[in-house]
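Possible regression after last week's pipeline update?

I re-ran a chain I had predicted before the update to compare outputs. Posting the input and the new output here so someone can diff against the archived version. Not blocking, just want to make sure nothing changed silently.
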Amino acid sequence: MRYNNLIAGILLGFFWISPVFATRKVLQPFQCQPVSSPENELKLCVLNLSEDEAQWFILKETRLSERIPVAPQSLSTVDDFQISPTQSFLAIVSVGEGHPILDVVDLKRLLEHKIVKSLLSINPYPGFIHIEKWQKEQLIVVTDRLLTYSTSAETEKSYPLGLPEGEKFALEIATGKITPLTPHARNPIRFYSQQLYNSHQWEVAEAITALVSLQAGKAIPILQQALKHHQDAEIKKALREAIEKLTR
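New output (post-update):
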């Protein structure tokens, strides 16, 4: 902690010497991670500013070695970042207007050429996502979205199906493969089938939509049982429509 405070003080001094940053407020947290062997004491650091994009730096020991002019996440606050064990990838969770987005970039290209090449990007809106850890070259993330199901809107994927908080997925950066790790993530049809009997009607409606989206034909008997269970006219109508769509 004292080391980080020392580095933060050095960077603050750098900012306030520069007229460009003289009026910028620094936000927490200030974060650094090693990007080379421990002997070199080289670190990649990020500093969040209230009225500007996050600022990235290379520090050697306690000296500012190099400022990276291109921020991986412009106009966003960096909530967390983690470097892969081989130092090939940089995973970043940034927050814009209170909403998190995950990006994985080519770290070597960023450091050597100051070029940001996004290899993977996940916008979990309206849900959340955060980094748990790197496991070899797989990134383990925690989210409340079903990442194995997505729809495309223009150039960006969306993940409309919700899950309980705390579901985990492994992201293989080289191939883009997404592997579910926790029970509801592995078997979403079972989860949404159970949600058909939830006491909250909006959750029942979401479960019906999810089963139709997943083309869950094997859930038809469960939908038929739920139709007998529910008394609400809107829910019964949605169940009938779902059964009809899945039997086509």
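Follow-up from reviewer: compared with the archived run. The first strand starts at residue 26 and ends at 34. Marking as no regression found.
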